[in-house]
Amino acid sequence: MAPVETNPLHLFGALPRFDLIEARHVEPGIRSLIESLSEELDALEAKVEPTWAGLIEPLESMGERLGYAWGLVGHLMGVKNNDALRDAHSAVQGELVAFGLRQAQSRPLFEALEALRAGPGFASLELVQRRIVENLLREAKHSGVGLEQADRTRFNEIAAELAVLGTTFSNHVLDATNAFSLTLTDPLEMAGIPESLKALSAQDARAHGAEGATAEDGPWRITLDAPVLIPFLEHGEHRGRREELYRAYVTRASDGKFDNTAVIEQILARRHEMAGLLGFECYADLSIDSKMAPDISAVEALLENLRSASMSTARSDLAALREFAEARTAKATAEPPLGALELWDVAFYAERLREARFDYSEEALRPYFPLPHVLAGLFALAKKLFGVSIVAADGETPVWHPDVRFFRVQGENDEPIAAFFLDPYARSGEKRGGAWMDECLGRSGRTEGQPVAYLVCNQTPPVGDNPSLMSFDEVLTLFHEFGHGLQHMLTRVDYALASGIRNIEWDAVELPSQFMENWCYHRETLLGLSKHVETGESLPLELFDKITAARTFRAASQMLRQIYFSSMDLALHAKDLASAGEDIFSVQRRIAETTTVMPPLPEDRFLCSFGHIFAGGYAAGYYSYKWAEVLSADAFSAFEEAGLDDPSAVAETGRRFRETVLSLGGGTPPMEVFEAFRGRAPSPDALLRHSGLVAEAP
């Protein structure tokens, strides 16, 4: 008799077997797991004890096993998307949502949680344990545990619909992005394009059947993937092609079979209805109820503070850009008169203006940032700040793509404490855009497992024999995601429900990621991670000085962009649009009136690809980036005050950052964590100073 195959989704506690996982494993693997967990849930409800061991530990165990299996499916949907996997995901998603709601809405478990909180033993629990209990109670209420049967039935219908709608939205964006490409054959249409992008787009053209395509002669395949789109808009001299690409990007997933307009309307309507069932006035109130911010007005106050500090400077930025562009085209013999400065011109002329002011180009930086050396510099910084060593462990475990690398994290005595996968490059067709960190395995004192993270970027892939040559923005992104990974991997919390980034309020979760970005402007760090791909030289000091001088270039404009997105997100979730007589795009235009200095195109449909709020965790929470950036800038200012050039002070402050922000995870309220590190409440002064919006401190 042939041995029974073990479903690779059931290997909880071990590193995933990506060499074995196939789409065919999803339906039987998830269904059998739900069946087994349902039996455990029935048994728990039948004789639940209002104690930590009798209630919380069984819930933790169930959540970890299901989270591991479904997390693998979700991860592969993001990095190795295909039709078979989509079909399998869709087939079981509703069942998974139903089981989650069945557990969250369990009256026996909810009553046991209340009894545990009210019982004599609650005060003797650790702070992290008490916080877990309180948050489980809140989550149960947000999941409809207190609803009457009819309302609970409707709530569950909405939750199932929202899960499907979110997946549909994400798939539409991926498909719409993949559906667009330009194959350019005229060298005039590639005028100004950096050699790195010419080589990359010719390599892509060859991969799509254009045999003999070369960087010099083409043809060149241009897509909406960030490593292609951004440098084309910044450097492409052909204004017509810039316009074509820009329009395609801001209208993605807004028509035809990939149209997300109706999907968004349904998502917003269902969220509003769900909030109403739970007794909230709007979905924004429901969202913020579980965040660090006390209420909507506090968020609006922060956004307005930043908006008012940025608007005048942003208008000056635009005036300077327009004046520069007009003067440049007036002098150029090969360039037609500009006429009006359009949205597809902004990135191009901003790059020219930055080059003129600071005398360097972003493309000139790429040879100094080959990925292997950037990683070495990043790992050296982690050693200096947090006392951890990161060693390559490629080949120790299977990966989902040959480009993926595996690393182990070791403590002060070289003991293994964590690990992570790194998937660095954009892959057209199967990998969604953006960059993210997700957990593979979490820390738990009960299982003694080590945390393992996924770090996923979409940076420029290698071309020919060269390694990936990173733009400075791609370096920033890698540092950002690594910061998230550090908080997941260096947690000291032994309870799985609050270890790593679990249980952290969403508007505080970006603190370590944005904190790490600051080190890219630190001289010793940036010079240490740079190494010219041909000469081996570090970044010249004069280039470093120019990079730091350019840090605040158009910073007010970038600040407004984030405020625009955050304010639009809140406005969409603050009322029922149908009853208010507004559609989603009229809300976008209304918010743009006060948060942009160049209004979006009338046909702009950016919302149709705004995955953060419609297919991610940022619904009525996109402001979290700015809320947490206040915390991260203030945290970095502690290193500035201690002395960035004093190794012992940096190490001491870094160790304190590790023992608070990176170690305490979701086991301590984030304000208490910040105050434990900083010694006081946060202030926005450092963020405004780093953005060049207030005078430097004396």
For the largest beta-sheet, the strand count, sense and barrel status come to:
5 strands, mixed
Approximately how much helix is present in the residues?
55-70%
Whole-number mean pLDDT:
95
List unreliable stretches of 5+ residues: none
Percent of sequence in beta strands: 5-15%
Oligomer: single chain
Structural class: mainly alpha
Q: How do the strands of the widest beta sheet line up side by side?
A: 3-4-5-7-6
Query: What is the number of strand segments?
Result: 7
Which class of the domain at 367-545 in CATH terms? Mainly Alpha
Task: Produce a short descriptive summary.
By secondary structure, the chain is mainly α.
Please name the defining characteristics of this protein:
698 residues; mainly alpha; Neurolysin, domain 3; two-stranded antiparallel ribbon; 27 helices; 6% strand
Explain the overall architecture.
The protein is mainly α. It is 56% helix and 6% strand. Among the domains are: 8-146, Endopeptidase. Chain P, domain 1 (Glutathione S-transferase Yfyf (Class Pi), Chain A, domain 2), CATH 1.20.1050.40; 181-251, no CATH class; 367-545, Neurolysin, domain 3 (Orthogonal Bundle). Helix 1 (26-46) packs antiparallel against helix 2. The protein starts with 25 loop residues before the first helix and ends in an 8-residue tail after the last helix. The strands form two sheets. The protein has a five-stranded mixed beta sheet, with helices on both faces. The protein has 27 helices and seven strands. The longest helix has 36 residues, at 296-331.
